């Protein structure tokens, strides 16, 4: 393996050459010999590692998508690097290690590299969860990514951190755990709302008085609101680190205001971007409204942006779908993985104006391809609606404490037109009639549609609808259009 340049300061041209060499070595020495899926895929497409002389060549390699992973367990195993011991024993580095340190040490080193010891999984909102296996080698990379999260966020070893992600085989929880462990700082994990509940989390935070609060955006917002209503004082909080969901500017501002009201002074809200298939997360650095972008570790993964319709690479600094290829992963490995996420600001290697790092940065906001959906609002034709825009519209709307969009059929008739119902919890003291007019006016300004109805709820009721503290990802967009009608359900009670 090549010696790594400095991940956050080496020039882009140095990294370009290094990443290309690393990719070729990784494919030839680890992925193609030991991954049944990619060994077969490359043969089917007539691809050879020697054909990859540039990243333009790499852009011709086939994508991996979520559909490739939502297959029977036997086929999912084909994405795991499973080497034959006889093949490994013939590697020069393994033979040298055995000579210098003994056969037992060489065997232990190979087991650390290839034996799975931990599993995370996708959240399974739209399909069955897909497991991703980690070896000790992967956990070392998770430590590295976690330490960089801490460094980018300007944490300090004497800070106290609270990890409020749910206890689960969920990347966000384990990335946070390894970040604290690698950085060598105090970290207590509460399990979020599912374990201690809101009251238990507040009591623990009262005792610890942390400097950093980490968790899902919706749960952290709910926790801080509840704490303020209960008269809590948490003046030490300097960072709120969020993961697992998108973070709108309006929500950032609300979180900062809540902490100010609880006695906090200078606080930064930092978002992270990660996904199970990458087996790591990437941080923002402290800046106003997430302006820094997500700082990518170029030694651990290669990111390209493509047109979501054609799959072709986009021009530099143009928006595009994020495609990820690991450069040093073991266990479960996916190449050229199409995330379905759009980096609206593109990707840049320019020096970060906030922290001074020189590394690839994904510029947001990050939106989902799948959140552009077709609604049949009349009998004639469908209308494409970008729900990413609606999310930011509602999160930034003054007077809205929480919300949920529900899509259904009129009268629950599957042959009828679509309807958009908006469920809203107003801020305390907010006049519902005035807020309804504001929301309808804002919808008219930003979109070509309007809610068929706006239903107002108290905050606890809407939290229940969203699954705050109970689900890994809160249900902010509830699509009931494909559910059976009431009549069908009565005729088919099973």
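Q: What amino acid sequence fits the structure above?
A:
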């Amino acid at each position: 393996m090549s010696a790594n340049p400095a991940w956050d300061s080496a020039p882009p041209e140095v990294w370009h050459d290094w990443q290309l060499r690393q990719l070729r070595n990784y494919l030839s020495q680890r992925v193609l010999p030991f991954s049944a899926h990619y060994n077969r895929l490359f043969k089917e497409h007539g691809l050879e590692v020697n054909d990859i002389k540039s990243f333009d060549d790499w852009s011709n390699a086939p994508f991996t998508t979520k559909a490739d992973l939502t297959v029977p367990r036997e086929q999912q195993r084909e994405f795991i690097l499973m080497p034959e011991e006889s093949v490994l024993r013939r590697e020069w580095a393994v033979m040298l290690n055995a000579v210098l340190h003994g056969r037992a040490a060489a065997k232990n080193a190979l087991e650390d590299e290839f034996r799975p010891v931990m599993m995370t999984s996708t959240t399974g909102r739209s399909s069955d969860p897909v497991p991703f296996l980690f070896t000790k080698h992967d956990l070392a990379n998770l430590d590295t990514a976690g330490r960089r999260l801490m460094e980018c966020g300007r944490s300090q070893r004497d800070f106290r951190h609270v990890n409020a992600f749910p206890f689960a085989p969920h990347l966000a929880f384990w990335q946070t755990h390894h970040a604290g462990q690698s950085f060598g700082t105090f970290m207590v994990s509460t399990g979020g709302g599912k374990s201690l509940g809101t009251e238990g989390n507040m009591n623990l935070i009262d005792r610890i008085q942390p400097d950093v609060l980490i968790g899902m955006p919706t749960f952290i917002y709910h926790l801080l609101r509840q704490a303020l209503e209960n008269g809590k004082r948490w003046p030490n909080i300097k960072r709120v680190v969020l993961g697992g969901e998108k973070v709108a500017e309006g929500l950032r501002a609300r979180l900062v205001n809540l902490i100010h009201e609880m006695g906090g002074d200078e606080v930064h809200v930092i978002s992270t971007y990660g996904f199970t298939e990458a087996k790591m997360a990437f941080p923002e650095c402290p800046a106003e409204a997430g302006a820094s972008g997500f700082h990518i570790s170029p030694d651990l993964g290669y990111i390209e942006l493509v047109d979501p319709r054609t799959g072709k690479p986009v021009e530099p600094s143009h928006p595009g779908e994020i495609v990820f290829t690991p450069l040093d992963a073991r266990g479960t490995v996916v190449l050229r993985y199409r995330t379905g996420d759009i980096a609206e600001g593109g990707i840049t290697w320019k020096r970060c104006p906030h922290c001074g790092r020189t590394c690839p940065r994904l510029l947001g906001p990050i939106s989902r391809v799948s959140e552009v959906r077709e609604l049949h609002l009349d009998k004639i034709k469908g209308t494409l609606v970008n729900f990413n825009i609606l999310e930011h519209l509602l999160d930034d709307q003054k007077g809205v404490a929480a919300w949920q969009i529900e899509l259904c059929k009129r009268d629950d008739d599957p042959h009828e037109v679509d309807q958009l119902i908006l469920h809203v919890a107003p801020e305390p003291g907010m006049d519902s009639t005035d807020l309804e007019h504001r929301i309808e006016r804002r919808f008219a300004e930003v979109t070509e549609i309007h809610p068929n109805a706006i239903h107002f709820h108290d905050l606890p009721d809407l939290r229940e609808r969203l699954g705050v503290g109970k689900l890994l990802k809160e249900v902010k967009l509830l699509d009931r259009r494909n559910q059976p009608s009431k009549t069908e359900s009565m005729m088919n009670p099973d």
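Q: And what stands out in the fold?
A: The radius of gyration is 24 Å.
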